Amino acid sequence: MSEENLKKFADAANCPVRNIVDRFGDKWSVLILLLLAEEEVLRFSEIHKYIQSISQKMLSSSLKALEEDGLVSRKAYAVIPPKVEYRLTAIGQTLIPHLKALVDWAEAHSAAIHQARSQAQLRERA
């Protein structure tokens, strides 16, 4: 790796990898993005039904961050009760093939990773 690239990675604020991946690489954002890719348009309550283990506060926070990054769009309707829909933006859609490749990789290597973790835990106990 070039010295210039090493400097970029060392600078957390300007590192393209850390700066971008940190925002959507959390526990929930990838699931939300993949869900929106499958369902196209979802309301907040529908997303929450699909991902039951996420709190409403965390879902709201994750959606807001994805919206701030331009990956998800939010459309509010002036009706009672309030209706808000979420969908992937054009740039969000370009991320999906990469996320699906990561999912495929994780599924293909899951057993090996779990085995390596188990072996590491056994070594720590010894």
Output the keywords.
126 residues; mainly alpha; 67% helix; globular
Architecture blueprint of SSEs:
Blueprint lengths: L2 H8 L5 H9 L4 H11 L1 E3 H7 L5 H13 L3 E6 L5 E6 L1 H36 L1
Antiparallel strand pairs: 1-3, 2-3
Helix pairs in contact: 3-6
Report a brief summary of the structure.
The protein is mainly α. 67% of the residues lie in helices and 12% in strands. It has a three-stranded antiparallel β-sheet with strand order 1-3-2.
Describe the protein in words.
By secondary structure, the protein is mainly alpha-helical. Helix content is 67%, strand content 12%. The chain has helices at residues 3-10, 16-24, 29-39, 44-50, 56-68, 90-125; strands spanning 41-43, 72-77, 83-88. Strands 1-3-2 form a three-stranded antiparallel sheet. Strand 2 and strand 3 (83-88) form a beta hairpin. The chain is globular.
Please provide the ordered H/E string of secondary-structure elements.
HHHEHHEEH
Please mark out the parts with pLDDT under 50 across 5 or more consecutive residues, or reply none.
none
What best-fitting shape do the alpha-carbon axes yield? globular
Number of helical segments with 4 or more residues: 6
Helix-strand makeup class: mainly alpha
**β-sheet strand percentage:** 5-15%
The largest sheet has its strands arranged as 1-3-2
- Global mean pLDDT: 90
